[in-house]
Amino acid sequence: MSDPILLRDDHGGIATLTLNAPASLNALSDAMLAALKAEFARLAGDGTIRAIVLKGAGKAFCAGHDLKEMQAGRQSPDRGRAYFADLFARCAEVMQLIPALPQPVIAEVQGIATAAGCQLVATCDMAVAAEGTRFGVNGVNIGLFCSTPMVALSRNVPRKVAFEMLTTGQFIDATRAAEVGLVNRVVPAEALGAETRALAETVAQKLTAAVKIGKRAFYDQIEMTRAAAYDHAAAVMVENMLWRDTEEGISAFLEKRRPDWS
Question: Does domain 6-204 sit in CATH 3.90.226.10?
């Protein structure tokens, strides 16, 4: 029997998901999208998991959609219209599950992250990249503008940087990706796993309920006007301040001791 297309390993409150299709550079095939959707649904209700790491097996993080599957979809009488509409809707659903998860999701990126694979990096809450990693929304090179990857990319990097990447199809390296805000940090390849794990552990040590409410508020306020965002954030902080564990955390800080969180 073949190995599962998506692997999960839980340790110390951190779930590591591994895209496990190295022969296709971990392409977001129909099977991969289905596996991600199912696993994200399980993680959403798993109170034991406080952070998630998403990585790829083999030499690449993710090369985007499976072009062979997409070409096969053209064989239908409508030349693939229904299949393509369904594919991009399913991909968009999976991408939108990531910010909706209560746990922060950290991409651990090596090799390449292209097209929908770059979209996946941009969609994760944080990302750590190995030196030498390349990022691109290069569909335009084969006549397909990366319109859906554009949604996540343009919400991560400056507008002109995103537009240049989308219209030229040129790749950027990990250093440039960090400069423009696509990834949080760049580390030597041999340190990638350890550095990503350290970031996940730092997040996992915080008050889980506070991170959960904060992540939800973070994404809610981004879509609002500034005034509405301040109103919403203030209401969230009021709710947060009234928690027993927040009161304990502040008291512990003032008294210079470790908090006794429930």
Answer: yes
